[in-house]
């Protein structure tokens, strides 16, 4: 379904979660930036059509996509053009504008994203998704059958989130998407005053879910208010030494190792 | 919207047109015969069914947010519980239209309940004497079951929720807890509940929930545009998870920095009333997750005091 053979050779990773607001877009962005800093060529595709967050998280609001004979030219987040980004946010003229679409229209937009974006050569394609198990997810999984290398599941530790995430795991099982691992986000908040770590959304839920289901646990990421203001590079580079940077590095390294091992096995 | 299905062939004249089923674009369309017969003209019959069922419902309050995980379900839950607790003679119902990720059964402490079918429709789950709840969570065999449905199936479910649930003789408040976004669920629910006749009061109102973070503000701005487009009146904006009080040193800090002024600035920009800020209380949040009735067990929490004054403002406005 993806048109270019070059994308076929890249590693395609879905970032999923049944629940909203758990940090799918932040994790997608950080994975993409981290891989880019490891000198890979990375594509980041945002298929959250009603609430695209990637342009904001990368500081790319106001950028526009252009057409070329090969299709849509994605927006590049860096001068070297090693991080290509595509989101519906780039197609909206005003930040107030909302995308009030029912399923079939969303489906055809996503198909266009998969077919018509001129990614050129990519080592990794990260796909950021909206919450749920509906049109967007069914479409992307159907169209990437045989191409998608698997899904990274993001959760927060509290019960309501885990409940939705368990539904997402059933979705992956039913649709045959390989589970690359679980990331537990917002795991504890370090008080800037007394440095006591409070577990705002409790803790350990993601890890125990990983243990119960036998899915690799990629790591727990603490809440750090500075994450949402870092714009010009990965957390790992910009905030190196902090616990949140270490946590992201651990997640990324574990993910890469798991992918490499999987490749060796096959 | 309109009478042209979103998956219609190009140049579809629309189901209500004189030429429906008769123009060249209709050739090959599976609905050609239905359209040509005129049966598809006339209004959607289910609109009347919903209207009949909803005739006894005085206020319909949508809890909306473009963003997920900002506390829509928690707020909807506490709003429903507060309204029910304040006036025991009023009937309150909570309808969870988040089809893919229903949270209300857990938050109401009704995880293992089931709904029953009776002659007058589905019987909702009663959490209190005057507080009824309906959610797709009650229809699933196991909490792990995923609802892998495209739009039309979700729409049908919502239509059934609106037309076939037996809420009793009359309802003073129907609170709708919604999923994030501006898509099928929102369009379906508003198309049934928001009146298209100018000047007619349909009793439908929206409450927008956001966190102070810019990503959330951006999505809620889009939701406000959605409300304007579908003609749903907005009561105001609630800013949730505004500040965090460290349980250890009691110092207040911001988890989601207000890069751009937070909920108050948003409400100014969109010309909507600002209903208030709600601080984050980790112990309260966990108790809600466990389905406790926190209004009774943690009544002195600053979070609940903030919510109580927001409920006052909502009641004054609707």
Automatic annotation (TrEMBL), chain A:
Q: Which GO terms describe its biological process?
A: iron-sulfur cluster assembly
In terms of one coarse class, where is the protein primarily found? cytoplasm
Note the superkingdom of the native organism. Answer: Eukaryota
- Any one annotated GO CC term: cytosol
- What cofactors are annotated for this protein? [4Fe-4S] cluster
Please name the Pfam families in this protein's record. Answer: ParA (PF10609)
MF (Gene Ontology) = 4 iron, 4 sulfur cluster binding; ATP binding; ATP-dependent FeS chaperone activity; metal ion binding
Q: Which residues bind ATP?
A: 18-25
Q: Which Gene3D superfamilies match?
A: P-loop containing nucleotide triphosphate hydrolases
List the subcellular locations: Cytoplasm, Cytoskeleton, Cilium axoneme; Cytoplasm, Cytoskeleton, Microtubule organizing center, Centrosome, Centriole
Does rRNA-binding count among this protein's keywords? no
According to the record, cofactor stoichiometry and binding are noted as:
Binds 4 [4Fe-4S] clusters per heterotetramer. Contains two stable clusters in the N-termini of NUBP1 and two labile, bridging clusters between subunits of the NUBP1-NUBP2 heterotetramer.
Give the record's keywords alphabetically: 4Fe-4S, ATP-binding, Cytoplasm, Iron, Iron-sulfur, Metal-binding, Nucleotide-binding
Q: Which InterPro entries match?
A: Mrp-like_CS (IPR000808), Mrp/NBP35_ATP-bd (IPR019591), NUBP2/Cfd1_eukaryotes (IPR028600), P-loop_NTPase (IPR027417), YlxH/NBP35 (IPR033756)
Q: What SUPFAM superfamilies does the entry give?
A: P-loop containing nucleoside triphosphate hydrolases
For binding [4Fe-4S] cluster, which residues are annotated in this chain's numbering?
191, 194
Q: What does this protein do?
A: Component of the cytosolic iron-sulfur (Fe/S) protein assembly (CIA) machinery. Required for maturation of extramitochondrial Fe-S proteins. The NUBP1-NUBP2 heterotetramer forms a Fe-S scaffold complex, mediating the de novo assembly of an Fe-S cluster and its transfer to target apoproteins. Negatively regulates cilium formation and structure.
Q: Which family does it belong to?
A: Belongs to the Mrp/NBP35 ATP-binding proteins family. NUBP2/CFD1 subfamily.
Query: What quaternary arrangement does the UniProt entry report?
Result: Heterotetramer of 2 NUBP1 and 2 NUBP2 chains. Interacts with KIFC1. Interacts with NUBP1.
Q: What name does UniProt use for this protein? A: Cytosolic Fe-S cluster assembly factor NUBP2 homolog
Say which species the protein is native to: Apolygus lucorum (Small green plant bug)
Automatic annotation (TrEMBL), chain B:
Quote the cellular component terms of the Gene Ontology held in the record: cytosol
Return the Basic and acidic residues bias intervals.
1-10
* Co-factor requirement: [4Fe-4S] cluster
Signal sequence annotation: none
Q: Where in the cell is it found?
A: Cytoplasm
Q: How is the cofactor bound?
A: Binds 4 [4Fe-4S] clusters per heterotetramer. Contains two stable clusters in the N-termini of NUBP1 and two labile, bridging clusters between subunits of the NUBP1-NUBP2 heterotetramer.
Q: Which residue range or ranges hold the AAA+ ATPase domain?
A: 58-236
Residue span of region Disordered: 1-20
GO BP terms: iron-sulfur cluster assembly
Q: Identify the Pfam families for this entry.
A: ParA
Q: Which residues bind [4Fe-4S] cluster 1?
A: 12, 26, 29, 35
Question: Could you tell me one molecular function GO term of this UniProt entry?
Answer: 4 iron, 4 sulfur cluster binding
Protein task = Component of the cytosolic iron-sulfur (Fe/S) protein assembly (CIA) machinery. Required for maturation of extramitochondrial Fe-S proteins. The NUBP1-NUBP2 heterotetramer forms a Fe-S scaffold complex, mediating the de novo assembly of an Fe-S cluster and its transfer to target apoproteins.
**Record-given protein name:** Cytosolic Fe-S cluster assembly factor NUBP1 homolog
Could you tell me which species this protein originates from?
Apolygus lucorum (Small green plant bug)
